[in-house]
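Note to self: the last two entries modelled the partners one at a time, which told us nothing about the interface. This time every component goes in together.
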Amino acid sequence: MAIDSGTWINVGFYIYVSIAFAILALGFNLQWGYTGLFNAGIAGFFLIGAYTAAFAITPPTPPSIGYPGHLGGYSLPLPVGAVLAMVASGAVAALVALPTVRLRADYLAIATLAFAEVLRIFAINLESITAGTIGIPGLPAPVEFNPPNAFLNATVKVAVSAALILALLLVLYFMAESPWGRVLRAIREDEEATMALGKNTFQYKLQAFALGGALMGLAGWLFVITLNYIEPTGSSAATTLGFAPAVTFSVWVMVIVGGAGNLRGSVVGAFVIYGFQWLSVQLKDLAPTELKEGIPYLRLMIVGVLLIVLIIYRPEGILRERKRVLR
Amino acid sequence: MATIFLALLAGLAALFGISILQYTLAGFRLSSIVIVAAIGLTVIYGIRGFANFAYGDLMTLGAYVALFVNMNLALSLIWGAIVSFLALAVVGILLEVLIFARLEGRGPVPPIVASVGVGLIIQNGINWGGTTQQWIFRIPAVTEIPIVPGIGFHWIRDFGTFVVGIGFVVSVHLLLTYTNLGKAMRATADNLELAKATGINTKRVTYAAWALSCSFASTAGILLGLIGVLSPTMGFNVILLIFAAVIVGGIGSPYGAVLGGLVIGLSQEMSVPLLIWLERPDVLHLEHSTAYKVAIPFIVMIGVLIFRPWGIAGRPPAFARRVFFMERITKFLGRRGDATEPVRGEGGG
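The predicted structure of the combined assembly is written out below.
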C-alpha cells in the first residue's frame, strides 16, 4: 500500500470536512453570488440541518444521570435524514426570508446574524431537546463495519461526500444555466430592471434563499454522518466547523476567494481555505512551543487579512464569473 | 413618556415584587453602555452607509488599551479611559485611510466583509499577542449602598455608567447642534453630494466621524469591562445588541440611538422576571430560562424591521409610510405580483 492507514484517515478527514464546507459555500453562493442576498446566518441553517439529521438518524438515547437526553432517536435510514434536514432548513430559511429578504443588504446581514445567534442560544440551553453543551455523541456513520475499521470507514465517508458534491454540482449547474438562474443573476445586477420586465423578484429571492438554506441543511447532515458528534457551543479546534459565527465568516472567505457567482469557485475556495486550516493543525508540532498555543488565533487573523485584501484588490476571486454576452 | 414608564414599573413591581427594581437598575446600566456604543455606531453608519461589524471588537480594543494603562502603568482608570479614547480615535482614522476609503461607492456588502476582517484581526490579535484569560480593571473598592435587602447601589458600576452615558449624550447633542463640525456631519449624513456642493470638506467630516465613532467605542468598551470582566470576545458578544439599538432607533440618527439603547437595554434586563416565571414547572418548565434574555432584543429588532424599518424614532421617508401600509394591505388581500417597493431605511439623519 502506497500510503499508510493513519495518513489516509487524516487526508480523508480533510476531504470530507472540505466537502461539507463546499456545500455550505454552494448554498451561500446561490444566495449571494447569484442573487445578491447577503446571508450572515449560515451557521444557523447549518445548525438546523445538523440537529434535524441527528434527531432523525440516531438510535434512541434515554436520559440518564449526567445526560439529559435529546429529542428524536428514530434510527431512520441516513438518506431520509438528509431529506428531512434539507426540508427543515429550507422551510426555516423561507420563513426567515419572508420578512427580511426585501430589506437592504445590511439589514439582511444583521437580521440573519441575529437569527443564527438566537438559534445557538436555544441549542445550548434547551437541554431536554438538544442535550445542551454535552452534545449528541454516537451518531451513525454511513456504513458501520464489524469489527470497526477506521480505514474503510474513512474511505466510505470520502466516497459518500464525493458522490454528494458531484451530484450537487451537476444539479446546480443546470439550475444556474436555466432561465431561472438567469433571473437570479438579473436580480443581483439590477432588481428594478428585472421587476420592470415583469418578474416577481420577491418570489425568486425567496426561492433562492430557501434553496440555499436547504443546501446548508444538507451540509449539516454530512457533518453529522462524517464527524458523528455535534454540540452547539462553538467550533472544535480540529475542524473549525461548528455553529459559531466563525463558520459563517469562513464560508464568506471561501466564496470570496474562489469567486462569487460560479460553482467551481465555491468548491475550490472551500478546499483551499480549509486546506490552509487543516495544514496549520497538521504542522502544529513543527512550530516552536511558544507559538503553538496561538496558532488557531493566528489562523483567524490571517483569515481576517485575507478578507480585507481580497475584497479591496480582487473582489472577483481566483476564478472569476464567466462573462455572458448577448448573442 | 416618563410617567408611562413609571406606571409600567409600578405595575410590574406589584406583579413581581420589589426585586423588579434590581432588574430596572441593571437595565439602565446596560442601556447607558448600549447608548454610548450605539451613538458611535450610528454616526459612521449614517455618514459612510455601511454596518461596521468590527464595532464590538473596537470596543474590546478600547477596553484593553485602558487595561494596559491601568495595570502596567499603574495609573487610574480615568487616565486609561483618556488614553484609550485618543488611541481609538487614531485607529478609526487609520481604518478609513487604509481600508474603507478604498471601498467607497461599492455598495454595502464589501465594507461589511472588510469590517468583519478587521474584527477578526483585533479579536484574535488580542487572543494571540495578549492573553485569552479574563481580566478586571483595578478600581478603588467601594461598598454597595443597600436599597432594599439584596439590592445594592454601586457608586462606580451603577452611578458611574449613568453619568458617563448621560454626559456622552449631552456632548453629542451639543456637538451636532452648535458646532460647525456637527452641522457638517449632519449635512453629510443627509446628502453627501449636496454637502459637497455647499463647500463642506466631506473628507474631513468622514475622518471626524470615524474618530468620534471609535472613541465612543473605547468608552463603551471600558464601561462594559467595568460592569463585568474583560475578555477578547466581550465586544463581539454585544455587537448584535448594539445593532438592535441602532435599528430600533433608526439608522443614522444619534437621537434614535438613545431611544433604541433604552428600549434594548431595559427590555433585555426587565424580561428576566418574566423568564423566571416561565421556568416554573406549572407554566412552561423552560430550563435555563434567564439565558434567553439576550434573545429578547432581537425579537424587538425583528418586530421593528417588519413594521417600522425606518426606526421607532425616525420619521418615515416621504411617501414610504403610505406606500408601506398600502403594500401590506394589498398583500393581505392577496393581490400578488405587485411590484412596488418603497424606499426604506433612509429615516433620520
